[in-house]
Amino acid sequence: MNQSVLSIHRGVARYTLATVALLLVPLCYSCTKHGGSHAADITWDTVTLQVIDSVEESGEKAYFIGDFTMLFPQEHQALAQEIRRVALGDEAGTSLTNREALKSFATRMEQAFLSDSTYMGTSSQQTVSMITTIPYKDAHVATLCIDVTTRNNNEEAFHSRRYCCFALEKGEALGERSLFVEGYEEQLHRLLLEEAEESFPGVVFITDELTPNGNFAIKEAGIQYCFSTETVAPQLNHNNEAVELLLPWKRLTAILATPSPVSHLE
User: What pLDDT score was predicted for residue 156?
Assistant: First the structure.
């Protein structure tokens, strides 16, 4: 399953690069992982990329302004490669560095905007901000949260949130099939419907859309699913940027695999 932050429109964009400003700044976060019977600290570097670009057609300019950040672990190549693949859509494997993968992701977003005929021949601007945080980490697993905010001209900003979970020891991405038993879908769908009714009383949900979507965070209290408000509950669209539903571990017991990467949390 492709767990990229955004669905990127691919294709050859007809545009001319004007100005690109890049700023790569290393910062640090820490978490812990177990390697057999030994514990070792993982240091997380933040790679920051800033882009200012434009294309001119028929005397009008379209501007793309982006500010992107992504977290990568130091000295854990398998985990870094998996983050590049899952979070940034880098299918090239080890051929790109962390910085190159982030730049490639930003370029694809830029091309999608600058090649969109909707904005050609008019003065327009798209501003994108991507921020990555670690809402949960322990000795075995870590959850990355990637928030992307996009604004076209003076339109209302569009916000999307993507969670990516990883097993730290092997540096592997964790999907639903890594955590649940075979045939989990129907029961998990039912649990999500029940939690939605309890958390948002009186709100009408599009029940067919409240299905396991791979966008979840592993947390100490349980697994938290994230849905687009526009998709599952349009009446909340102006009040909530996302619908997040936390399923406690005790409610998931019947469908959790044994053992699993989250067995220590159950």
Answer: 77
Q: What would the two tokens of residue 90 be?
A: 């880098």
Contact yes or no for 179/257 (Cβ under 8 A): yes
Give the Cα separation of 192 and 178 in Å (integer).
19
Q: For residues 60 and 120, give the distance between their C-alpha atoms in angstroms, rounded to a whole number.
A: 8
pLDDT tens digit sequence for 215-262: 999 999 999 999 999 899 988 866 567 999 999 999 999 999 999 999
Question: How, if at all, do strands 124-137 and 60-73 pair?
Answer: parallel
Q: Would the CA dihedral through 258, 178, 217, 234 be positive or negative?
A: negative
Q: Which two tokens stand for residue 196?
A: 């939605």
The residues with which 131 forms a beta bridge, in sequence order, are: 147
Question: In this structure, what are the phi and psi dihedrals at residue 143, rounded to the nearest 5 degrees?
Answer: -115, 125
C-alpha span between 219 and 248 (Å, rounded): 9
What is this structure's pTM?
A: 0.81
**224 SS3 class:** strand
What is the residue type of 208?
D
What are the angstrom distances between the C-alpha of 18 and each of 15, 149, 237?
9, 23, 37
Tell me if 219 sits within 8 A of 233, measured CB to CB. no
